[in-house]
Amino acid sequence: KCCNKTPESNDVKENLLKTFKEQNNMDWATTFRSDGLYIEIPLHLAEGSKEKFINTLEFADTTLECKHVFIFFRKNRSDRASLVRTFMFLGFHILSPKTCLIPIPSDDYLFMVYTND
């Protein structure tokens, strides 16, 4: 199962994620759940965001041992089509709004998932 579900393990992984974000000057909102890492894509993407994001994917796979990384952003963004294309190029897939993988279903957000092999 993705990201061991024991509370102790999740606490350790939350601390590892916090340290990683501090070391990489990453201020994106993230949520670590037993079924993966959730990342909210900010409205304004700073220079170097792509590299930071790729590093985060690698960190989620190798250090956090997550099977899934989820991203989400508001559906009404003007750059939505571009974001979807970019993340699909990176291997993400759009999630159905009815899937149980979405922690809080919302018509306002689009969720995508990347599965680590």
TrEMBL record:
InterPro entries noted in UniProt: Acyl_CoA_acyltransferase (IPR016181), ODC_AZ (IPR002993), ODC_AZ_sf (IPR038581)
A GO biological-process term: viral translational frameshifting
Gene Ontology molecular function terms on file: ornithine decarboxylase inhibitor activity
Cellular component terms (Gene Ontology): cytoplasm; nucleus
Domain of life: Eukaryota
UniProt record similarity statement: Belongs to the ODC antizyme family.
Protein's name according to its UniProt entry: Ornithine decarboxylase antizyme
